[in-house]
Here is the input.
Amino acid sequence: MNDQNMSRKKGRYTLIASLVTSILLVILFAVLSTAVNSSRAVPLYTQVDIIAGMIFVFVLSMIVSASVWPAVIEKRVKDR
Here is the structure.
């Protein structure tokens, strides 16, 4: 029962860490792309480009972070 509980905790922590990481990267992308757009006389990106980029960044960062975070969290949970 303890192993199953640890597995659930690891899965939950991994999901939360992946979501937080992805959301932070999407916010960073949105801020930087908006800053680039506002600094130019003629906007480089349309709103559709920025939103599509945000979705793309979210999906890619979820894929990468979902493979990175489990090892980190497993180490932390085992140390406790």
Q: What stands out?
A: The chain is about 90% helix and 0% strand.
